[in-house]
Amino acid sequence: METVFDYELLKEKVDTALNSIRPYLEADGGNVKVLEITEDKVVRLELLGACGSCPMSAMTFKAGLEESIRRSVPEVTGVEAVNITPAF
Questions:
Q1: What is the per-residue pLDDT for 74?
Q2: Which CATH number fits domain 7-81: 3.40.50.150, 3.30.300.130, 3.10.520.10, 1.10.287.3510?
Q3: Could you give the CA distance from residue 16 to residue 34 in angstroms, rounded to a whole number?
Q4: What is the 3-state secondary structure (H, E, C) of 7-71?
Q5: pLDDT tens digits, residue range 29-63?
Q6: Which residues does residue 34 pair with via DSSP β-bridges, in sequence order?
Q7: Long-range contacts made by residues 47-56, C-beta under 8 angstroms, separation at least 24?
Q8: Strand, helix or coil at 78?
Q9: How many CA atoms lie less than 13 Å away from 7 in the CB half-sphere?
Q10: Using alpha carbons only, how large is the chain's radius of gyration in Å?
Q11: The pTM is what?
């Protein structure tokens, strides 16, 4: 039997996971927004404010945002950021 995709419940869990990271992002003038959760449970994020242009955004994404979501919401199959700034 296939499980029905409950977008609102999944988004609530993802937001809860991100809320544990948000104070650190906000302290540096940034934030994060959930753009989409696909039917195959891939979370697409947008880094906002200073996070969108920070050369450390890839590290923040991998070590902070992605890790927090994967740990708290194991049913998520992937996490993507749409605007990671490459480190030089």
A1: 96
A2: 3.30.300.130
A3: 12
A4: HHHHHHHHHHHHHCCHHHHHHCCEEEEEEEECCCCEEEEEEEEHHHHCCCHHHHHHHHHHHHHHH
A5: 999 999 999 999 999 999 998 888 888 888 888 88
A6: 45
A7: 47/81, 47/83, 47/84, 49/25, 51/25, 52/83, 52/85, 53/85, 54/28, 54/30, 54/85, 55/85, 55/86, 55/87, 55/88, 56/87
A8: strand
A9: 6
A10: 13
A11: 0.86
Query: What are the residue ranges spanned by the domains of the chain?
Result: 7-81
Taking residues 65-77, what's their average pLDDT? 95
DSSP classification of residue 75: T
